[in-house]
Amino acid sequence: MHTITVTINGAAEYLAVRSNMTLLQMLREELGLTGTKNGCEAGECGACTVLLDGEPVNACMVLAVESDGHQVITVEGLAEGDELAPLQESFIELNAVQCGFCTPGMLTSAHALLQRHPKPTEDEIEEAVLGNLCRCTGYVRIVDAIRDAAGSSASASGKGGAR
Amino acid sequence: MTHATAAASQRIGGTIGRSVRRIDAHDKVTGAATYADDLLAARGPGLYYGRLVRSPHAHALIRSIDASKALAVRGVKAVVTGEDTPTRIGLYLKDRHIFALDRARLVGDPVAGVIATSEEIAEEAARLVEVEYEELPAVFDPAEAIRPDAPLIHPELGEYEVVNFIFPKPGTNISEHFKLRRGDVEAAWPQCEIIVEGTFRLPPIQHVPIEPHVAISLWEQSGQVTLWTCSQSPFAQRDLIAQSMGIPHGNLRVISPYVGGGFGGKAGVSMEACAVAMARAVKGHPVKLRMTREEEFICTNARQSLEAHTKIGCDSQGNLLAMETRYIFGGGASNEYGVNIARAAGYSCTGPYLIPNVKGDSYCVYTNTPVGSAMRGFGMPEIHWGIEQIIDQLAEKIGMDSAEFRRRNCVKTGETILTGMEMPAINLEACIDKVTEAIQWDRREPPSAPHKRRGKGIAIMWKAPAMPPNAGSSAVVRLNEDGTVNVEIGAQELGQGAFTVLAQVAAEALGVPYEWVRISAPVDTRYSPYEWQTVASRITWSVGNAVMAAAGDARHKILAVVAEHWDEDPADLDIKDGLVMSFKSEREQPLEGLVVYGLPNENFEGWKGGPIIGTGNFMPTYVTNLDFETGQGTRAVVHYTVGAQAVDLEVDTETGQLEILKIASAYDVGKALNPDLIMTQIEGGAVHGLSSAFEALKFDEKGRPLNNNLVDYRIATVADIPREIHGDIVETPLEDGPWGARGVGEHVMVQTAPAIANAIYDALGIRFSDLPLSAEKIFLALQ
User: Which of the residues A163, B60, B367, B487 has an alpha carbon 20 to 30 A from that of B621?
Assistant: First the structure.
């Protein structure tokens, strides 16, 4: 067991974790932060994407001990209290949510993008969620919602949805 | 149809037809939405975990199982085998054991289950269970499996319990044979000017929901059993598991929170029954069983493979005259839904065309591959792949525009279709018009580079809800002190938006704002009213009708109380925006208070009314059986939803890469209760359909999986989507749909693959009869 200190969604957590425990297991099983989803445990689907010091990572591919001394943001940490983040509002408003299982990972990937590029290009949006698989939406509304949250105007040549 | 429809249809107010916000969206963007794996997520001392021991052989007799080494591992609590579950289970045909009893029929068949204090210990111990197998010859291809000399996968087929509309052939691998005979094909062939014939093959593919299957079960000493799982069919799971394991239905409680993608893969029973059997071995302890992604691909269920041999002919004017087709579905090791998929493909075997002479044979055959089960479209994507390419070839050979050929021959309202049933009202021509307009069908556009070729293609479809004739729905509407409403249903939210639309139905039928309605979730068979299953695109229609009836019942009860109180006729009263009002006296009474406490008589001398609860149900009562020899009957199905898609694409001749420039879709949904949710189905379906054209589960010569992971089995990413997806909605009301609505959840991907194939042909002059497509295949065909 290792004793670690991690700042999760702004609050410091002191935890004893096994050497082989993943960050995903730590979040879900030790801290009850079940918003982060387990889709493959192989770094292939992106459902468990969280931010480690602002960088999107697959939590299933990071050991819990590696988060020692670092900042982790999960989907539960995107809203400010009861106030949803603009990204969350846009996902609701533009129906970018269907089954919801990829949504937490999509939101955290998109959040990282907007932190880095507040006015992302179409290519940057695509690249940001390329590692997040979605089987329901066809991605159309997800891209729309990220663009909407960024407040950037839709480019005429951009991929757009059925309207 | 019910009185509720007639009453409420006069009162379309604020909610129906409006794209209200999804009722589930807030929970889903904050991480608050609960899925099966989120239940008992924390490790606790009483919680056990399961892992399954799986057959490494595609077909083998199980000679012996020795679990002693596994049981000696510290932390292992029990090992369950087929001897613990000797009774068969299955939806239409009881053709399997929960754990393989004496024979394994696919690589991945569960032969034992290990229960331990952690997943890691269970996994380690599962490797120590020693199983002695005697390998048998296996068969994977449906066309080989149907041969009389093929290895027999179910020698006991004649003993299996089966419903009265499925016809297995004991002594063969055939689990269902549906025959359609109409007119006289032999007499019609000589009258045909053009006949096109082809063989089309589709590999098995997987649903790939982002959420893998998870089941948790607790068997209490009292005999009460609980199963928490991600299920499209909580009630069907209760029914089948209760029957197979001898549990009184009232003792088996199935609870299903949000489902993280279903697409048919979480319908019926797959690994959930294993969890229940494992829980029985460690009473008092919940057992959590989770599929790895590798297991999800091959050990839950898959879309069946198909070999279709189809021949269609038309006269010199382009009128379809005859069709002969033979569909052989590779149903897998057992056929949870496969038998009914073959049946559905049989009674809809012509696709959406009126053909006077038809000979159709649709088979489901056992193969030593993943269990063939329901997947979005239920046999229709498979059969449309060939039909829609043959239709294109007929049009070309007769010299007619292929969209015009489809307009001429497509099924129309009131026509007598292949089963002898009269076609309920639809407008497929309008769908064709919408997509040809959206894709600019008549315009030939140049490719973007000299080494690229551009092409357009069209395909149309039909699909009926495939289900037992009497699949029922029910609903309860409860009103709260403040006038808010809780709607109890057994239907499931898979992402399709069912909870939102059903809340809209309740709001409209009752007369309250949408925002006042809550859906009582999760679905819990102890408290939720009965629902057959969340499949077949039947929820908006069937459960919509049940909710409408329940809300209508509550409304009727409220109006009766107020009418008595005001000494008025209930017919003069209505409920709008949560206010009971009289057209006659113009009096008003808010629902608040009244719906729980009733109304006081004058001077508080007694009270009227009481807590308001409305109940309703819906079950189609008019579906008839079909003749075994001809497939003819008065009413084969409840209705059909129809639609069209057109594709504009470019092929890079140097790489074989496709770029989809645009997919235009149009579906006749009867009435769009929430138009934007339909658009999201249209978009998601177009990408699912596009992705499916490139997907295949691959196996080696021993039936071992080669690509059961998300790297080797690719599904569409954000980089693969069309540049534009256009959607149109056509509204020809359905006689017995709520406000005329019918389902569209599956239809949106049915004809995407053949529309792409037709566009590739337009671009290159090359036809592909076998799926999957790939850049490599297209490149090689160009050489």
Answer: B487
State the DSSP string of B63-129: EEEE-HHHHTSTTEEEEEEGGG--SEE-SSB--EESS-SSEE-STT-EEEEEEESSHHHHHHHHTT-
pLDDT tens, residue by residue, B589-613? 999 999 999 999 988 899 999 999 9
Contact list, B265 vs chain A (CB under 8 Å): none
Which of B211, B495, B727 is facing A39, going by the closest CB pair? B211
Q: Which residues of chain A have pLDDT under 70?
A: 152-163
| CATH 3.10.20.30 for domain A2-77 | yes
pLDDT (mean) for B754-781: 98
Q: How far apart are CA A105 and CA A50, in angstroms?
A: 7
The answer to whether the CB of B541 falls within 8 A of the CB of B495 is no
Q: How far apart are CA B463 and CA B408, in angstroms?
A: 19
CA–CA separation, B212 and A39 (whole Å): 6
Reported as a single tens digit per residue, the pLDDT across B291-350 is 999 999 999 999 999 999 999 999 999 999 999 999 999 999 999 899 999 999 999 999
Indicate if B305-467+624-782 has the same CATH topology as B3-33+471-618.
yes
| DSSP at A26 | I
pLDDT at B44: 80
Give contacts of B208 with chain A, Cβ < 8 Å: 135
Q: What is the mean pLDDT of residues B253-282?
A: 98
Q: What is the pLDDT of residue B13?
A: 58
Q: What residue segments make up the domains of chain B, in order of their start?
A: 3-33+471-618, 37-136+212-259+266-300, 305-467+624-782
pLDDT at B548: 98
A-chain residues within 8 Å CB-CB of B674?
Answer: none
Q: Is the predicted pLDDT of residue B256 greater than 90, yes or no?
A: yes
For the domain with range A86-150, which CATH number is right: 3.40.710.10, 2.40.30.60, 1.20.1250.20, 1.10.150.120? 1.10.150.120
Question: Which two structure tokens, joined as six digits, stand for B421?
Answer: 């049933």
Q: Least CA distance to A132: which residue of chain B?
A: B717
* pLDDT at B43 (0 to 100): 82
Q: How far apart are CA A133 and CA B749, in angstroms?
A: 18
Spatial separation of the C-alpha atoms in residues B673 and B47, rounded to whole Å: 44
Distance CA B599, CA B607 (A): 6
pLDDT per position as a tens digit, B74-87: 999 999 999 999 99
Q: Are B54 and B246 in contact (CB under 8 A)?
A: no
CATH architecture of residue range(s) B37-136+212-259+266-300? Alpha-Beta Complex (3.90)
Measure B725 CA to nearest chain A CA, in Å. Answer: 5
Q: Where are the beta strands (DSSP E) in B464-531?
A: 473-479, 485-489, 517-520, 523-524
Secondary structure (DSSP) of B526-587: TTSPPB--S-TT-IIIIIHHHHHHHHHHHHHHHHHHHHHHHT--GGGEEEETTEEEETTT--
Mean pLDDT of all residues in B768-783: 98
Contacts A–B by Cβ distance under 8 A: 184
* pLDDT classification of B45: cutoffs 50, 70, 90: confident
- By C-alpha distance, the chain A residue nearest B721 is A138
Contacts of B35 in chain A (CB under 8 A): 34, 37, 101
ipTM of this complex prediction, to 2 decimal places: 0.96
Answer yes or no: CATH 3.30.365.10 is held by domain B3-33+471-618. yes
CB-CB under 8 Å, B683 with A161: yes
Query: What CATH number is given for B305-467+624-782 in this structure?
Result: 3.30.365.10
Band (B5; pLDDT cuts 50, 70, 90): very low
CB-CB under 8 Å, B208 with A135: yes
Contact A137 B721 (CB under 8 A): no
